[in-house]
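User: Could you check the structure of this?
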Amino acid sequence: MNKPIKQSDGALLNPFEQAKRYILELPVSQHPRWVVTCNFSTFYVYDMERPRGEPEIIELANLEKEYYRLQFLVDAGNEHLKREMEVSIAAGEIVGLLYDAFYKQYANPESEHSLKSLNKLCVRLVFCLYAEDAGIFGHHGMFHDYLKGFDTRGLRKGLVDLFRVLDTKLQDRDPYLKDDNPELAAFPYVNGGLFSDENIEIPPFTDEIRNLLLEKASENFNWSEISPTIFGAVFESTLNPETRRSGGMHYTGIENIHKVIDPLFLDDLKAELEDIKARVAASKVTSLFDNAETVGDVKIASAYFTGTSGDTLRGMCDTIRDNAKAAAVAVLVGKSDDKITMAVTVTKDAQAKGLKAGNLVKEISAIAGGKGGGKPDFAMAGLKDETKIDEALAAVKSIVEKQLG
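Assistant: Sure, the predicted structure tokens are below.
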């Protein structure tokens, strides 16, 4: 990688020096932040903010575990990403400390059952730590405050009781649990099977483990700041590789922490949120027709909704068509997770006048760099240029007029 190669002009340059020569021929606005050279077994990553600095070296053989070190390729120069990476690596180190501390407490730490239990225990603890910081458990620090109520000797039983409660639906719990242990009763039910295995082996706690959980892992760290993608690789690399290969990992091949959380109970919350957003947004669109523009006797409504997915737009359009009492056209744009979608719906009376949603969406979305299609009553398109959305919506009336002839 550092060996000079003779160039056509006789100069001896290594691959990095060749890249720098090529960069000098580019416009300044196109100069890259990063230069990566590779011989198909080793990557050399150079930061051009430090052109004389030593490169980061990544071996292809380790890429499965260290791919997060190439995350800068996704969003060069993003300081937020840098912070996420730092926090996520720190989270992985905490998991490693917990793993090592618990490992020493097992009676037979090399047994298959103990190693599987240790991996499951780490996953459960990470979920609880993340859940208390992300507000999933109801209030910040809820897991910490519960654990703090036990001394070292009683902490193991307290954790066993918590796991059992997290796996029990509210209606199936002891009706007197709120009186006996209100702190424990306050935890929600977590579906998805994460806490269902009661045969998990949990070893005795030590003062070291108690302090590690309460202070380093909970009080002094915010798990909601981690990058799920980066942390997934770091987290998995801390767990015993032999156990993962033998199927001991409760969630084999974790790529991000949301694969633990989403299938549990966040999916239901997300679905409920989408339903609420759809109903709120639909009511807003309905009110738009009160002061809608008209072309002939066709009413036209257009709107842009942030935080609104394509599925929500579809539901809104269904509502508009179901409630329409006259000829009407609605052109809606929504943005969710950096994805911009346009939806067009045309009522039956408007279709009878020659308007088709598929034709309208093609012409209107093209203004914002989009393309799409659909049926006469409903059509969708993806948009690429967010700066052109207002222009596209402003053109709806003239495009409807043209297509009416």
